[in-house]
Amino acid sequence: MESLETKIPPPILTAAVALAMWGVSRYTPLFEISSFLRGVISAVALLTGIGFSAAGLLEFRRAQTTVNPLRPEQASSLVDSGVYRMTRNPMYVGLCFVLVAWAVFLSSGWALLGPLVFMLYIGRFQIAPEERALKARFGDAYADYQSRVRRWL
Asked: Which positions ≥6 away from 9 have C-beta within 8 Å?
């Protein structure tokens, strides 16, 4: 299974999961929710997701470190400022919120499994190898950061 580690760019994974969620929503019962409420919840979740992802990206740019999730060993600095004080993975939290927004928009309870699948896959095949690389590169400083800040929220 190591062959899958850091191989699929997270935005591509998000798009694939979103497509699967759409497919599931076509063949499973939908939940009843007013269009207005569905729109509001979807918009709030989407904007929250975009906010988390953008804040994470901005902090990486400020630190002048790589944003390439396929090469975590190329990190030039340990970023623990801004949104990284709240979560170690704000960009992945953001993508998860986007998937939640999509599931609500689709009005599909079964599509809500999409964000869970995303979290499980990202945790095993993206975050775990990233954490190994960061621990190897930054040692005790990264271990201290892990002890202070949650992986998700």
From this structure: 69, 70
Q: Is residue 2 part of a domain?
A: no
- For residue 136, what are the domain limits? 8-148
- What string of pLDDT tens digits covers the 153 residues of the chain? 678 899 999 999 999 999 999 999 999 999 999 999 999 999 999 999 999 999 999 999 999 999 999 999 999 999 999 999 999 999 999 999 999 999 999 999 999 999 999 999 999 999 999 999 999 999 999 999 999 999 999
User: What's the total number of domains in the chain?
Assistant: 1
